[in-house]
Give the backbone structure.
Amino acid sequence: MITMRARLRRHSIACVVFLELLWLPWQLAAQDVPGVTGLPELTMPIDNPLSPAKVALGRELFFDKRMSRNGAISCASCHQPERGYADGLRVSKGIDGRLGTRNTPSLLNVAFNQTQFWDGRRADLEAQALDPLFNPREHGLQDVQALLDVVRQDADYVAAFQNAFPIAENGITDQHVRQALACFERTLVAGDAPFDRYFFGGERLAISDAAVRGLAIFQGAARCTTCHVISNSNALFTDNRFHSLSVGLRPIASRLAEITRKLMNNKTNANQLGQTILRDEEIAELGRFVVTYNPADIGKFRTPSLRNVAHTAPYMHDGSVPTLDDAVEQELYYRSVEAGRPLILTAGEKSDLVEFLRSLSSYTWPD
């Protein structure tokens, strides 16, 4: 059996984590993490504050392939550090090569999301953390006991959990796993991009002239900030709301009544809902509706952040848009429909807009 300690000796994990903050004694008792340039301060949940021990444990769990039915899939299989904690595929690929229906979102800055998953079906990282582990198209673990068997039978894990949480040797629960994973994911913070140094730091030469022109278009003619928000003090580049770009919805528009009935006739809990979404492409296209059952939410998906967007292709909830240039075209089409009039940019203006989007990159890519 490959133990936790053996894996730690065998490889080092490269990721964007600001662990130097975590080692400050005052930080361990605080509920707010000082902001990185361009990002707001990060508020920690009172019932799961960060600690170095929890972050280190969560990181080990994140990269452990034993957290799957066949020992071949870890969280990092889809959320790869070298791809900005995404995977570069159109849709996720899980256990035994099974494909899902949704594009794998980057986990960079996931701590700032007000809901989790493309449809917002989970409220926070703790609630979301274990869903993929029990989804037959992702990690495929049979049940909570299968997960607990892995960690309770590894002496190094037992010691790490006892170091991170005030528990007895046999007291490890799935809630502890949730909290450790969530703590690690909250450290995946990427700000201080060239854009941030230009816009918030006053460094006039931090971005190119083309990117400056692209920023003006982004805030002006293209109306991008309607959803990808920039404030005076920070920029998450998301409004954390749900919108419909009609991506993937048009082919099934004539059958929406049938598809919504199919969902509503098969009442599911939150765990079963995730399985249904990754199995049924048509239900997956219903977007936020699968959570709210509000007809106005059909086809709506959470606005993703644009930070590091140049490195996380393909785009949209279904991965159907292959390049950043294509994504700009798709967004311009949506803005035109929303405004009720054509939104036309020249080839040069589109190029400037893409150059601006590239200035949002700040993640250091591991070799």
Summary: The chain has three domains: 4-186, 194-244+302-358, 250-298. The longest helix spans residues 324-339.
